[in-house]
């Protein structure tokens, strides 16, 4: 089915207000879920809303809580999210990193006790829209086996790197070959994965999303490389925030809450003039996209460059929402 931004936002807000979330908080949170969906990231917008409500109902998320600053070390600050709403707090933390970067050239916020932030790319994009390089990542509960193992011991810990420019270039990627959200998108559409995404119960590589969602033998992106990167991202977030690691979240908590996140903003405009910046970026873009194509029908593209088109299409034609997902939300 097709829905408008307003229909999505109104329904998300209704569900939140019905759970006694304050009207202004519900409004902002609903707007972020609707914006993520409208941008084409269905996995962590509309599709993930029922899971967010489940965590709110369980008491994992504290809707009245506000993040509080713990300490300040020049361009670095440590904050405690106090289990507040993940997407709202992440937005505030990137704003704070940008403000530090405008004073120091770079700003880094390490956040503990946080909740799932949904689309990590929202916060990288937020920095890039203001002219800053945005880098952020989060840890998670253990949902992926480390390279060589069968049992989940590491997080999908997505890493986001966003570069200001026209258009913004941004990688927003899970440390697994596919995020669980993208496995769900493919399963709901009845599609096989374009490449192997994990192992089946017999230890054979598989493209069946449903099998991997069930057995959780998801592949790290780049095999051992994604496994290693997931581990060091977890270590940095844990140390700088003095917060919980994937091991602690998994062994000590009843679900995925109390996680650790990093938000970095870096100044660009005082290091290079605008015309040189644009020319250098354009040269990179042209060089990459003019590579001889493997498949003549498929253009070579840069990450993040599709969002402006997707957003315009969704605004023009309405936003595609899976019927079963919407039915679940209407019943909340
Ligand atoms: N715990 C958490 O918070 C988690 C959150 N997530 C969120 O899930 C969402 C989806 O993540 P994930 O499934 O890893 O994303 P994808 O695998 O869909 O994409 C990963 C990256 O690869 C880029 N890309 C994909 N195809 C191409 C291509 N043909 N050419 C160039 N670049 C390409 C994407 O750019 P483009 O966007 O332009 O397609 C994106 O930057 C993210 O928002 C992520 O933050 C994921 C895991 C855990
Ligand atoms: O992978 C995802 O998608 C995601 O968003 C996650 O947070 C974790 O992998 C996990 O919570 C999925 O159950």
UniProtKB/TrEMBL annotation:
Q: Spell out the catalytic residues.
A: 44
EC main group: oxidoreductase
Keyword NAD included in the entry's annotation: yes
Provide any one GO MF term from the record.
3-dehydro-L-gulonate 2-dehydrogenase activity
Residues engaged in binding NAD(+):
168-174, 224-225, 304-306
- The transmembrane segments are none
- What GO terms fall under cellular component here? cytoplasm
Please name the InterPro entries in this protein's record. Answer: Diketo_gul_Rdtase, Mal/L-sulf/L-lact_DH-like_ah, Mal/L-sulf/L-lact_DH-like_NADP, Mal/L-sulfo/L-lacto_DH-like_sf, Malate/L-lactate_DH-like
Q: Does the keyword NAD apply?
A: yes
Q: What are the entry keywords?
A: Cytoplasm, NAD, Oxidoreductase
* Assembly description: Homodimer.
Its function, per the record, reads: Catalyzes the reduction of 2,3-diketo-L-gulonate in the presence of NADH, to form 3-keto-L-gulonate.
Which protein family is named in the record? Belongs to the LDH2/MDH2 oxidoreductase family. DlgD subfamily.
Q: Which PANTHER family match?
A: 2,3-DIKETO-L-GULONATE REDUCTASE (PTHR11091:SF3), OXIDOREDUCTASE-RELATED (PTHR11091)
Q: What is this protein called?
A: 2,3-diketo-L-gulonate reductase
């Amino acid at each position: 089915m097709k829905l408008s931004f307003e229909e999505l936002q109104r329904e998300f807000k209704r569900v939140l207000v019905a759970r006694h979330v304050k009207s202004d908080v519900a409004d902002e949170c609903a707007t972020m879920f609707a914006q993520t969906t409208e941008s084409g990231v269905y996995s962590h917008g509309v599709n993930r809303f029922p899971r967010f409500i489940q965590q709110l109902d369980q008491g994992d998320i504290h809707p009245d809580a506000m993040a509080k600053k713990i300490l300040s070390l020049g361009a670095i600050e440590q904050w405690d999210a106090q289990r507040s709403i993940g997407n709202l707090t992440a937005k505030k933390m990137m704003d704070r990193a940008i403000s530090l970067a405008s004073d120091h050239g770079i700003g880094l916020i390490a956040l503990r006790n946080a909740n799932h932030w949904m689309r990590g790319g929202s916060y990288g994009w937020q920095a890039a829209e203001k002219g800053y390089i945005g880098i952020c990542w989060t840890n998670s509960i253990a949902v992926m086996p480390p390279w060589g193992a069968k049992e989940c011991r590491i997080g999908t810990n997505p890493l986001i790197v966003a570069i200001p420019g026209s258009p913004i270039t941004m990688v927003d990627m899970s440390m697994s070959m596919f995020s669980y959200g993208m496995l769900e998108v493919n399963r709901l559409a009845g599609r096989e994965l374009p490449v192997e995404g994990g192992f089946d119960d017999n230890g054979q590589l598989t493209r069946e999303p449903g099998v991997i969602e069930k057995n959780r033998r998801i592949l790290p992106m780049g095999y051992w490389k994604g496994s290693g990167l997931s581990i060091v991202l977890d270590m940095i977030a844990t140390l700088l925030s003095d917060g919980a690691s994937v091991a602690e979240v998994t062994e000590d908590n009843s679900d995925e809450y109390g996680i650790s996140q990093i938000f970095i903003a870096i100044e660009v405009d005082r290091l290079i003039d605008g015309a040189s910046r644009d020319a250098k970026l354009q040269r990179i873009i042209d060089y990459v996209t003019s590579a001889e194509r493997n498949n003549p029908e498929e253009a070579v593209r840069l990450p993040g460059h599709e969002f402006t088109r997707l957003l315009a299409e969704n605004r023009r034609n309405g936003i595609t929402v899976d019927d079963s997902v919407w039915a679940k939300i209407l019943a909340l």
